[in-house]
Amino acid sequence: MRDEEVQDLELHRRLSTGDRGAFDELYARYGAAAYGLALRIAVQEAVAQEVVQEAFLALWRAPEAYDPARGTFRTFFLSLVHHRAVDAVRREERLRQRSERASNLEPVRGEDVADEVVEGAYLSVRRKQVREALTTLPPEQRQVVELAYFGGYTQTRIAQDLGIPLGTVKTRTLAAMRKLRRALSGED
Amino acid sequence: MAEDHERIEELLAGYALVSLSGEDAEEADRLLAEHVPSCLVCRQTISDLRGISGDLALAADPVPPPDLVLARIHRGLDESSSARRGRRGSFVALAASVAALVAMGGLSVTMAGRASRAEESTDAAIQLLSVMRSPGADPVRVDPQGTAPSGSGFLSVSAPDVRRLYLVADVCPTPAPGHAYQLWLGEGGSFTPVGEMFVPNDEGVVLLELTVDVARYDEIWITEEAVGSEPSTPTTTGRHWSATLV
After folding, report:
1. pLDDT digits (tens, 9 = 90+) for B86-102
2. Whether A58 and B228 lie within 8 Å, measured CB to CB
3. A41, B35, B211, B229: least CB-packed within 10 angstroms?
């Protein structure tokens, strides 16, 4: 287990005892990643801020929701943010208003992490690995993953928007996730 | 039942991206509840897929949240801490309130081990008793359904002219990992989640006070939901309890 993951576990243990200092440390570690993700999905700053706020508060209120046996704290928490962001955009029915964006999603950028963001070395390294893994996907596979993950679209909606069978969306998604799984295995 | 692992992996891949809907979502929920927990291959698959999903978050540029976000969170922490202290007090005093509910035939409970703490009654218990004493008070037993243990149950207490609902349980099972319970109120088949998700304390005790006008609803449900999700309808594949409000 990496040092960062050990530290996360210790912070989570302290958080479970109501330690506000541990909470603030986790916010310092993951606030920027969480907000960047929420902003990418929700687009609107106010919605993204609410998503991040609610995700951190949910963590504070129910720290036991994280089970270390099921993976790292980072993947748990960022998945929580992702779920909430997707729920937010779907709930507010912004998908239709953002339909133009569907065919022109902001591409994943390379190395241009915001200068003012200070994050752990491992997070930066992992970020680079994830982006590189995404670039290895065939465009049609990467497209369905990005529409689903960052666009918040259901597979049914993706099939409709792209004019392809639902089965094709599922096949491309599975193929993409298998490739990502291979590319990123052993690193988490 | 033999399962097609290619098909399962396809569903779980969509599940990990939060992109399933309709029958696919229902099928994934069923598999996660019935098949995956007992299948080594699928447990590893979903674990890996969840890891990838968490990793994909890093593909978005990190952006420092505005300072106001942390300020709002800190305010929320203060409120949660107060509520947490209040809930602890409520749990401690639940013996008294549950004893009163038993007297009304609401729940069958064993008070052993908690009676001595009944002396530490709290505002929540007093308010609950106050509601129960009010004219027309209406305790409703919310019975287990589906996979909920037969000995478990909740009691919902409300009264006319009181825009509050109390939800009490003494043998509430711990939800599955990553899950918590959600209260729903239904009106003509349409359900609304009420309050935040909750979990019982270590003794399986729940006491919730919710500000809501119960009179307009005709059903009450408590369902097991994934923490962090914001379901729009009750999930009935896990443990759940329900009752008709008359």
Report:
1. 444 443 344 344 444 43
2. yes
3. B211
Task: Report the SS3 class of residue A35.
Answer: helix
What are B105-149's pLDDT values in tens digits? 333 332 222 322 333 334 456 566 666 665 566 778 888 887 788
User: Which residues, 6 or more positions from B140, have their beta carbon under 8 angstroms from its beta carbon?
Assistant: B155, B156, B157, B220, B243, B245
Shortest alpha-carbon distance between residue B32 and chain A (Å):
14
From the list B13, B52, B61, which residue is nearest A114 (CB)?
Answer: B61
Tell me if chain A has a CB within 8 Å of the CB of B172.
no
Question: Tokens 């291979």 correspond to what residue?
Answer: A182
**In angstroms, rounded to a whole number, what is the distance separating the alpha carbons of residues A139 and B76?**
42
User: By CB neighbour count within 10 A (0-12 exposed, 13-18 middle, 19+ buried), where does B32 fall?
Assistant: buried
Cβ atoms of B142 and B242 within 8 Å: the answer is: yes
Q: How many CA atoms lie within 13 A of A27 on its CB side?
A: 26
Partner residues linked to B226 by β-bridges: B179
In sequence order, the β-bridge partners of residue B166 are: B157, B209
- What's the CA gap between B186 and A101, in Å, rounded? 36
With a threshold of 0.90, tell me whether the complex ipTM lies above it.
no
Tell me if B61 and A112 make a contact (CB, 8 A cut-off): yes
In the prediction, which pLDDT does B189 show?
78
Comparing CA positions, the residue from B133, B129, B139, B123 lying closest to residue B90 is B123
Rounded distance, CA B26 to CA B228, Å?
18
Helix (H, G, I), strand (E, B) or coil at A130: helix
Q: Where are the alpha helices (DSSP H) in chain A?
A: 3-16, 20-42, 45-61, 73-91, 99-102, 121-135, 139-149, 155-162, 166-184
How far, in Å, CA of A129 to CA of B102, rounded? 59
Mean pLDDT by runs of 10 across the 188 residues of chain A is: 87 92 95 95 91 90 82 91 87 54 49 51 87 95 96 94 96 97 74
